[in-house]
Automatic annotation (TrEMBL):
Catalytic reaction equation(s): ATP + protein L-histidine = ADP + protein N-phospho-L-histidine
Pfam families recorded: HATPase_c (PF02518), HK_sensor_dom_bact (PF21623)
Topology class, membrane: Multi-pass membrane protein
EC number(s) on file: 2.7.13.3
InterPro entries recorded: HATPase_C_sf (IPR036890), HATPase_dom (IPR003594), His_kinase_dom (IPR005467), HisK_dim/P_dom (IPR003661), HisK_dim/P_sf (IPR036097), Sensor-like_sf (IPR029151), Sig_transdc_His_kin-like_C (IPR004358), VP0354-like_sensor_dom (IPR048760)
Organism of derivation: Rhodoferax koreensis
Chaperone as UniProt keyword: no
Protein name according to UniProt: histidine kinase
Keywords: Cell membrane, Coiled coil, Membrane, Phosphoprotein, Transmembrane, Transmembrane helix
Length: 678
């Protein structure tokens, strides 16, 4: 018990001893939290398992609640975005409708005027001038004849409208809007691409976004060219920018080639016409550009925000708006894009998210506080349990004494087993040695007879009879001595000194095949067939010699006992991995099996069911000793339901290091104690 916690030291009467109140003078007193934390040392793992599920639940619920809050707060933003798309589209459509009506009206009035005189004082010039004065948003009002030559042009930039002199008129026959508008029926309207105005091959400065609206000029069924209005789009673009600032939602325009007319970044505006081809939307946001190309309207969410887009089609949109007359979309190709900026969305939702984060933090603190209180209670309960355990110390001492008695009994049982082993060895050696002694006495008697016959007169037949009988007797002696030597050799195997074995790395399949030459080249004429199923590449770091001896003994045991009074059968050896650290070897046969009464003693020393045919009962005991004590594994024997039996060996891939037993050092034979099976 630590001396730093004197409050836990009690006398027999329950009061503190006087020295318990003293503390080390140089050691600062620990805080209450630290003392309580140290008191929880024994219950920390249990406390973690109690508190951790609640913390995990909070960690799961917080992202879900955050997501739901995002969806709830984003809903109004998405509705505002969709409303902005509709409002902006209506503004553009109304503007296009006004342009359509103006150009159609001007074309109709122009057809009623004499077209021969186009001087500044002519009626048609006065018509164009008054028309331009009534619509200051129109930069130019022109009549282009059927050859593409400007016949009349009124400019309106700064100040009142001015009729351009004939010397300044240009040929617009190469412009697409001229050819497209000239082919339209009378009363139709053509919209050009919205781009920067170009004069004499040079983009005007400052930049002048211009939309050209044209209508064919038909006089008495004869085409006399087109009437064109150049609309300055600055006013429309400024209105869209103002709407974007008012709604705090980005409103942008894109042309048919994928370049920004008015985009999120001012540097990207008119990039295609100004030669900055790398600023195309197909380069910066290919997914958005693909969606805009494929659909007339839709939505897309990417890293830049939540987009909504719509294609502006004057023909369809003006018809839906109630504007009569044929309208050709021409090259307008406008795409309206509206975006919810992530930073703007965050500014509108951060308060609610801060509230949610605060609630989550409070819930975590409450959970930790309750966990701390629970830990204190568990620590107090554990201290009480320790006091109860201290009260039971007498019972533990009695239990230890009982275990000591059991250990002595086990030792006595091992000594008894040693006596039985010595008796078994004496019994096994007595039979062959007695047979050898009897044969030698027979030879001695025959030798005495031969000596007597030599004195009386030895015949050839007597000598031949002596030689024959002596050969037979000596064969019996040699056989008995060999059997005795075999018994002694197996007995030595049981007591083999494991310190002479070397551990090395090897392939299991190769060691199994090396255990017996017959395993590599089986005699197919043998009525007993062999089946091998050895997994390749199973590396082990163990003792190959004992493992080979185990396989060889199991093979000899099966050939000697499994197929008695049977015409033949099959032996199967399988070796497979059993997880990353173990291997399993199954040695099975389909022979006669072992009686259940004998199965429990199959690994006992000197236990055999074929003693009359020379069995010693040491083969399987040696197998058990090697597997259990040397290889560090386990072996089990069982009968198969379909007949025969199987030995199952489970071995570690890295065998434990050998330890010299005390029995070896004392000269005793460590036979071990094989498991008993019911």
């Amino acid at each position: 018990m630590p001396a730093s916690n004197p409050s836990t030291i009690q006398t027999a009467a329950g009061s503190r001893p006087p020295f318990a109140l003293a503390s080390k003078p140089n050691r600062p007193p620990r805080s209450r939290w630290r003392r309580e934390f140290e008191a929880m040392r024994g219950v920390r793992r249990r406390l973690v398992f109690m508190v951790l599920p609640w913390l995990v639940l909070l960690l799961i619920l917080f992202p879900l609640a955050w997501h739901e809050l995002d969806a709830a707060l984003e809903g109004p933003l998405l509705r505002d975005r969709d409303d902005t798309v509709q409002d902006t589209s209506d503004i553009i459509v109304r503007t296009l409708g006004s342009l359509r009506r103006d150009v159609a009206f001007l074309s109709e009035l122009t057809a009623r005027q004499p077209l021969i005189d186009v001087s500044a004082n002519s009626s048609i010039a006065q018509l164009f001038t008054s028309f331009a004065a009534s619509a200051p948003q129109y930069d130019q009002v022109r009549w282009i004849d059927e050859t593409g030559m400007e016949r009349l042009r009124v400019n309106q930039r700064v100040g009142p409208p001015v009729v351009v002199s004939a010397a300044q008129l240009q040929n617009k026959g190469s412009r697409p809007y001229f050819h497209e508008a000239l082919r339209l029926p009378a009363g139709s309207v053509y919209f050009s691409e919205l781009d920067l105005n170009v004069e004499n091959g040079v983009i005007e400065r400052p930049l002048e976004p211009t939309l050209r609206v044209a209508s064919p000029l038909v006089v008495n069924g004869q085409r006399r060219g087109i009437v064109v209005i150049n609309y300055r789009a600055n006013r429309l673009l400024e209105r869209l920018a103002g709407l974007s600032r008012q709604q705090r939602i980005g409103v942008y325009l894109l042309n048919a080639q994928g370049y920004w007319i008015q985009g999120p970044n001012k540097a990207d505006d008119w990039a295609g016409q100004l030669g900055r081809t790398d600023r195309a939307l197909s380069h910066s946001q290919p997914a958005l550009w693909q969606a805009v190309q494929q659909e007339d309207h839709g939505e897309l969410r990417d890293a830049g925000g939540a987009w909504a887009f719509k294609r502006i089609t004057p023909g369809q949109d003006l018809t839906l708006a109630g504007v009569r007359g044929q309208v050709a979309d021409g090259a307008l190709g406008l795409r309206l894009l509206v975006r919810i900026d992530p930073e703007a969305a965050l500014q509108r939702t951060w308060r609610w998210k801060a509230v949610l984060a605060t609630i989550f933090a409070v819930a975590v603190l409450i959970t930790l506080r309750l966990g701390w209180q629970t830990g204190r209670n568990l620590a107090a309960r554990k201290a009480h349990e320790e006091e109860l355990q201290a009260a039971n110390s007498a019972l533990r001492q009695a239990n230890e004494q009982l275990q000591t008695v059991q250990t002595e009994l086990a030792r006595a049982d091992r000594l008894s087993s040693l006596g039985l082993m010595v008796a078994g060895v004496a019994h096994e050696l007595n039979t062959p040695l007695g047979t050898a002694t009897l044969a030698l006495s027979t030879v001695q008697q025959r030798l005495d007879v031969l000596a007597l016959l030599l004195k009386q007169g030895l015949r050839k037949s007597d000598l031949e009879d002596y030689v024959a009988s002596s050969h037979a007797a000596l064969d019996v002696v040699l056989t008995s001595l060999r059997r005795s030597a075999g018994i002694v050799q197996r007995f030595k195997q049981v007591a083999v000194d494991r310190t002479t074995m070397e551990q090395r790395r090897f392939d299991l399949a190769e060691i199994v095949l090396d255990a017996d030459p017959r395993l590599r080249k089986w005699d197919h004429g043998n009525p007993v067939q062999l089946k091998l199923d050895l997994a390749p590449g199973l590396q082990m770091e163990s003792y190959p010699g004992p493992l080979e001896q185990v396989i060889a003994n199991l093979l000899d045991n099966a050939l000697a006992h499994a197929f008695v009074n049977r015409p033949g059968g099959q032996i199967t050896v399988r070796a497979l991995a059993d997880g990353p650290d173990h291997v399993c070897i199954w040695f099975s046969d389909d022979g006669i099996g072992v009686p259940e009464s004998s199965l429990a003693r199959i690994f006992d020393p000197f236990y055999t069911t074929s003693r009359h045919s020379g069995g010693t009962g040491l083969g399987l005991h040696i197998v058990y000793q090697l597997v259990h004590d040397v290889l560090g594994g386990s072996i089990e024997a069982a009968n198969l339901a379909e007949g025969g039996m199987v030995f199952t060996l489970r071995l570690p891939r890295k065998a434990p290091l050998k330890k010299a037993s005390s029995a070896l050092s004392s000269g005793l034979l460590p036979l071990g104690e094989p498991p008993r099976r019911a």
